[in-house]
Amino acid sequence: MKGMLAGAAHSRGGIRGLIVGASLLAMMPTAALAQLGGSLFGPPSQQFAPSNSPGPAPSAAPPSRSIQTAPATSSAQAPQLPSGQASLAVSARFGRDIPQPINGGLLWRVYPAKPDASRAYKPIREERANAPVFSLPAGDYVVHVSFGLASAAKGITLRSETVREVFDIPAGGMRLEGRVGDARIPAGQIAFDIYKGSQFDTGDRQPIASGVASGEVVILPEGTYYIVSNYGDSNAVVRSDIRVQTSKLTDVAISHRAAAITLRLAVQSGGDALANTEWTVLTPGGDVVKESTGAFPKVILAEGEYRAIARNEGRTYERNFKVTTGVDGEIEVMAR
Fold it and tell me: CB-based burial of residue 154 (10 Å sphere; 0-12 exposed, 13-18 middle, 19+ buried)?
């Protein structure tokens, strides 16, 4: 079924969406463009049972709470069908053990069971309602539903009668933020990459979601995930394992031991900073942490000791300095 589910991930309204192929369609590619419709968070009457045992998260504090879904919108009755047509009513829930329906953020696609003349599988119906009813010619189909990064698929045979199918999507939500001490890291200064499994698993892996913003909700299949938190663009990186539970929204606060440092080169203390200065920040062992150019470059560094090297008009100057968690400041290198 090559090409049937080709596409890419994107986000809308703070919710990350990506279709991942289900086991029933293991032969298919696993990505497809997803546009999430509706809200995951609705009135208290839609709230699920709270979690009692959130999973462990090194360097993080991930309290789990219930995902709330928006009120369902669906066709109350199947339409009158012409001869040769059949009706397919579909809905989704978190699973047999959690039969609460999923009432927001669903994307449905119906595919023919066989490819067209070009040997491609193209969706013949697409719907973003929570419990849509499809009118289709009698025959065999594959129905795929995505909920963020989680999905499910079934093969369906339609005859003359109405067919009703419920899809199980055991998924939960994760919302990430970073902190230095008690202070929240501004959204534009931190991003997260999400990997399947634990950080202690071996082998090369690709992230299933990259550049996730602070406060963004990512919907994922239930399981363990490895989070890489990047504060700035140098060496302030924290790795954590997080457990996602079905129907629960887990808030994760990842703690960084770092600070924001501004570099300046001056002829005298407190004097004007020299423009067009090339900077290199090194570890005590000589490893390059950050390179930049400018009069006032700002770099976010993990707690520790460093050496700043400034190059201006063919001359080189340097200074050793120390970074303390949460203590933002300025490092002045003297041009003499």
Answer: middle
Q: Which CATH architecture has domain 171-255?
A: Sandwich (2.60)
Domain boundaries, the chain: 10-168, 171-255, 258-334
- Burial (CB count within 10 angstroms: exposed 0-12, middle 13-18, buried 19+), residue 160: exposed
Topology of domain 258-334 in CATH is Immunoglobulin-like (2.60.40)
Distance (Å, whole) CA 319 – CA 335: 10
| Spatial distance between the Cα atoms of 167 and 108, rounded to a whole number of angstroms | 11
Distance CA 25, CA 1 (A): 9
- The pLDDT tens digits of the residues spanning 57-107 come to 344 445 555 555 555 444 445 456 667 789 999 999 999 888 889 999 999
Give this prediction's pTM. Answer: 0.75
Residue 47 has pLDDT above 60, yes or no: no
Looking at domain 10-168, its CATH superfamily turns out to be: Immunoglobulins (2.60.40.10)
Helix, strand and coil percent figures for the chain, each rounded to 5: 5, 50, 50
CB atoms within 10 A of CB 127: 18
Phi/psi at 173 (nearest 5 deg)? -115, 150
- DSSP assignment of 276-326 equals S-EEEEE-TT--EEEEEESSS-EEEEESEEEEEEEEETTEEEEEEEEE-TT
| DSSP result, 82-112 | -TTEEEEEEEEES-SSS-PBP-SSEEEEEEE
Alpha helices (H) in the chain, listed in sequence order: none
Q: How far apart are CA 15 and CA 331, in angstroms?
A: 39
The encoded tokens of residue 208 equal 């299933």
Give the span between the Cα atoms of 8 and 215, in whole angstroms.
21
**Identical topology for domains 171-255 and 258-334:** yes
